Amino acid sequence: MRIHFYRHLLVPLGLAATLLLSVEPAVTAEDKDLAEVQARGPIHEAFAQPGTYNPVANPVVGKQAPEPITEEPPDQKPAGDTVAWIPGYWAWDGDRNDFLWVSGFWRVPPTGRRWLPGYWTASGDGCQWVNGFWANAEAKELTYLPDPPASLEEGPSTPAPDAKSIYVPGIHLYRQSRFVWRPGFWLEARPGQVWTASSYAWTPSGCTFVSGFWDFPLAERGLLFAPVAFAQPVAADFVFTPSYCVNTPSLLGSCFVRPQWNQYCFGDYYGAGYARQGYQPWLSYGPRHHDSLYGYYNAEHRQDNWWRGLSAVNDGRIKGDLPRPARTLVEQNTLIQNQRNEKTVINQNNVNINNRTTLQTVTSLSQVVRGNGNTVGGLTAVSEKQRTEQRAIAQETHDLREHRVKEERPAPRPEGPKERPAAQKEPRRVPLPPAPQPTRLEPRPKDLDTPRAKGQDTPQPKGTDTPRPKGQDTPQPKGTETPRPKGQDTTQPKGTDTPPPKGTDTPQPKGQDTPQPKGTDTPRPKGQD
């Protein structure tokens, strides 16, 4: 049985995409009996994940999760050779007291990273979600650590060096046989790049350290598809092709964080009832917890109307002055239809708000903006060869999930779901299946290496970082830097996800500044000696 949902609206790939707001039937009458496209729900954690510094077990739900369903990627994908299909997974929906399907999506992987998918594991009479995470692609094993001490993070101790700086919170790092505290630091923001801070991922076998890495802004990460709720169990031969997508411009306007699940959600989770369930508006959670996405977008839009408009939408919905987004695609179509005569609202801060644009949280693949009516802007057709390659990538992801299920066996929990046995005191290392050859990876973006913190010349607490080579702080004359070998910035010690020590950029070879041998025709740049 093969089901496709292709009765759609529009997929914007950028924050300024123009929306086509015509309303079409969501799904046929036959399809409505099986599935309902959601206009809110969890954001696929391979697309964005808040990260945690105090890892605890996720809540236990009172039902067993179904087996993952088979997905077939849509016949259109974002342009680019690095785009990969990341399969979906089941997530718990407390309102429905049941599971919904977080659809797979097209993703441009972060450079030097490999997706390790999450999974459901049995716990008592129910089950428990174990989050996925982006691991170092060079790692040959996973290390499971004891619980780190409670975070000591209290915010920046010094003012930001400039308006473009972002704060990276402190974290406990495991060194030899103990945890040591690495204080937070200010990091120079890079245009078009998002620094995802180091964090921990909880597993039944212990905590895994996930080192920090550079990622892309949301609009450049790929094509995120909307969750789907199934009205009945699906057959074993069921194949699902998602096609309704989450609209990036409206995503941040209705973004929430659930720290206890280590996940972002989008849509209508406003109100005291959802606050009691742990939903926190991203715009208020971000500055308090130094969220990586918040740090990037705050630095990029601190002075412009985009940021003011986003805050105005969120505040207006919380107060009830602005309509809240719908919860399903069918409800969204009705809501947008009713807003035809209320296109724009001027709020008390004189910020223009287009209700119809902000309320369209879900858009569709078939009504993507078409440049000349014949081509799909920003998307390319998926060839049969690419489809075969993507099936292989999806199978690799499935194998990694099964590997985690096998190796991360839950240990007995004498006290409850959030109590880990005291026996976990030493690191445990488990080999990872070898990563495939990166034949589909494009050259590393310029300067995408692990950054140095501003003011890094100040000594770090003893044991937290490897000292920089003597004299490395002295700036080199312009143009004298020796190019690093291709890919060298991403290489970390084998078998570890721990980031390279700060300041470990490759030093210049001894004698680099000595004159060139006689007879060379290429003159050295002026002043290089």
How does the SSE layout of this entry go?
Elements: E1 2-4, H1 29-32, E2 35-37, E3 41-42, E4 60-61, E5 70-71, E6 76-78, E7 84-86, E8 89-93, E9 98-102, E10 105-107, E11 113-116, E12 119-123, E13 126-130, E14 133-136, E15 141-144, E16 165-168, E17 171-175, E18 178-182, E19 185-188, E20 194-196, E21 199-203, E22 206-210, E23 213-215, E24 222-223, E25 228-230, E26 239-241, E27 244-246, H2 248-251, E28 255-258, E29 263-266, H3 272-276, E30 280-281, H4 282-289, H5 292-301, H6 305-319, H7 329-338, E31 344-346, E32 352-354, H8 355-359, E33 362-364, E34 379-381, H9 384-407, E35 428-431
Parallel strand pairs: 1-26, 5-26
Antiparallel strand pairs: 2-25, 3-29, 4-13, 6-34, 7-10, 8-9, 10-24, 11-14, 12-13, 15-35, 16-19, 17-18, 20-23, 21-22, 27-33, 28-29, 28-30, 31-32
Strand order of the largest sheet: 3-29-28-30
Alpha carbon gap, first and last residue: 71 Å
Global morphology: globular
The largest β sheet comes out as: 4 strands, antiparallel
- The amount of beta strand, in percent, is 15-25%
Low-confidence stretches: 1-32, 369-376, 438-529
- Supply Rg: 24 Å
Tell me the helix content: 10-25%
Average of pLDDT: 76
The count of strands amounts to 35
- Number of continuous helical runs: 9
Backbone structural class: alpha+beta
